[in-house]
Specification:
Layout: H1 8-24, E1 26-29, H2 31-40, H3 46-50, E2 57-58, E3 69-78, E4 83-85, E5 91-92, E6 105-106, H4 113-116, H5 119-135, E7 145-155, E8 176-185, E9 187-189, E10 191-196, E11 201-206, E12 213-217, E13 221-225, E14 228-230, E15 238-248
Antiparallel strand pairs: 1-12, 2-3, 3-4, 3-7, 5-6, 7-15, 8-12, 8-15, 9-14, 10-11, 10-13
Helix pairs in contact: 1-2, 2-5
Length: about 250
């Protein structure tokens, strides 16, 4: 573990996540276990990190014209010993992976500098790197991983459904995906579903508490999230998540 930590509880959780991912190509990580892992990789000041979701910009690239999604974006190079933020660049997915919004360069607002360097962000990146390294066959491990980080807020109103994955059930065209719940406020549904490559349901669960998480082998399963609606339409309703993806450089 990071910082030469070998505490039995942390090792047991890491081993369990890796074992589940090897077996099912995804793992659900409960909030308490995720906190244990991230703290082992240096996490601190969760509240200071989470409050930055209140400053996301509107996603203006939705092909359906919707304005219920807010986000910021950043990229990093991950080596065995370093986490290096890259120059800001567009997010691109081919239409093979994103039939709704793919095929164009999407220039989202960058993740704020203090958020990109925050201990929670670096812990999430370091944990994802560790899982990716452990789960990738040694002869296939790259010297450098390309990491993409997305801050998402999906909003819902009385007459506007929020779609966390408007492209539907999908793969991201990467190797590994980590999704961390930041906050759910006044929403119902938002259930995560995992399907194998033959479209059979492999799992279904709801990330509800802060730090609930899912780790996904993007080469072997599809994932999606059901739409959200407000419980009380007179109050703000939203779903905040952090998404980290890794692929070979």
């Amino acid at each position: 573990m990071e910082n030469n930590s070998t505490r039995p509880g942390e090792v047991a959780v890491l081993d369990a996540v890796e074992s589940e991912t090897r077996k099912d190509h995804f793992a659900r990580i409960a909030s308490a276990q995720m906190r244990l892992l991230l703290e082992a990789f240096g996490m601190s000041d969760w509240d200071g990190f989470a409050e930055s979701w209140g400053r996301l910009g509107v996603d203006r690239y939705m092909a359906d014209g919707a304005r219920y999604r807010r986000r910021r974006y950043a990229t990093f190079s991950l080596t065995q010993d370093a986490i290096i933020r890259k120059r800001h660049q567009p997010h691109y997915q081919s239409r093979d992976y994103n039939t709704l919004n793919g095929g164009i360069e999407r220039w989202f607002e960058p993740v704020e500098k203090k958020v990109a360097s925050h201990p929670v962000m670096h812990a999430a990146l370091a944990l994802t790197r560790r899982l990716a390294m452990d789960l990738t066959p040694e002869n296939e491990r790259p010297d450098v991983w390309h990491a993409e980080v997305h801050q998402f807020r999906i909003e819902a109103q009385e007459n506007i459904t929020g779609h966390p994955t408007p492209e539907g059930l999908h793969r991201d065209g990467v190797d590994w995906v980590l999704v961390v719940m930041v906050r759910r406020e006044n929403v119902t549904s938002g259930d995560t579903t995992i399907h194998d490559l033959q479209a059979h349901v492999a799992g279904s669960f709801t990330l509800s508490a802060p730090l609930d998480a899912a780790f996904v082998d993007d080469n072997h399963v599809f994932h999606g999230v059901t739409p959200i609606q407000p419980v009380d339409p007179t109050q703000p309703a939203f779903r905040d998540v952090l998404v980290v993806t890794l692929r070979h450089q």
